[in-house]
Amino acid sequence: MSTDNMQIVLTYADIALASSLIIIVLLVSWFLHLRLTKTLVIAALRTVIQLSFIGLILAWIFAREQWYEVLIILTIMTLIAGSAAKNRVKRTYKGLLVDTLIAVSTSAVLVTVIAISLILQVQPWYTPQFIIPILGLILGNSLTAISLTSNQLIENLHGQQGRIEMMLSLSAKPFEAVHEQIRAAIINGMTPTLNSMLVVGIVSLPGMMTGQILAGADPTQAVRYQIVTMFLICVSSTLGCTISALLIYRRFFNKKQQFVLP
């Protein structure tokens, strides 16, 4: 086999060797009294179990290519992402789960449809090899951005209640009274994505690109795929943060446009 087409196949022994490296992390936790031993062990076990389980499911889905099975997987992924985004918010309110689900699903599904139908032009649209990984990438980054936005906005609205009510008393409209809080929250949610875009290819090689290169793909094609995914993630995160912020903002005002804590 030529080196140009070299593809390294990982064995269970390789996985076991990589897993043994976690011992280093456990030693650091023990030496510095970080009290993370239990969390690290659980996280490592869940990583192996969850990825192995999803690997079996994906292999089965890829072999069958039935649109309704793919749709079920996509729906489950979206619901879990929305729930995860909600669980990362410290100060919750009734209806937060609905808001996060709307923000996650709307942004991720819209961008995924654009990617599949217009950019990649996948036929049929439910080809699992493409749509599942793309939605997974977008959901993973979107839920982080949305949770950061939601968390900061809710905290700011609670912490700056007096300032907001003062602006309302000075004839400011509800959106004007909370515009700075919304702006700061969206910026906070977008920061990880923007930071990644600023250093990608210089400081870091993203996971998707690295995986393709290790699998023997043409580096130029891997780069093109990564550029596309970075832009998709940026758009989805921006839409998700904006939708989430607007939904949360509406929860803090009643029909009389009075500021209330939900």
TrEMBL record:
What membrane topology was assigned to this protein in its record?
Answer: Multi-pass membrane protein
Which GO cellular component term is one of those annotated? plasma membrane
Alphabetical list of InterPro entries matching this protein: UPF0014_fam
One Pfam entry for this protein is UPF0014
Cell compartments where the protein resides:
Membrane
UniProt keyword annotation of Lipid metabolism present:
no
Q: Which residues span the membrane?
A: 12-32, 39-61, 67-85, 97-120, 126-148, 197-215, 227-249
> Keywords in UniProt for this one?
Membrane, Transmembrane, Transmembrane helix
User: Carries keyword Membrane?
Assistant: yes
Q: Which family does it belong to?
A: Belongs to the UPF0014 family.
User: What is the protein name for this chain?
Assistant: Putative ABC transport system permease protein
Native source species: Psychrobacter luti
Q: What lineage does UniProt assign to this protein's organism?
A: Bacteria, Pseudomonadati, Pseudomonadota, Gammaproteobacteria, Moraxellales
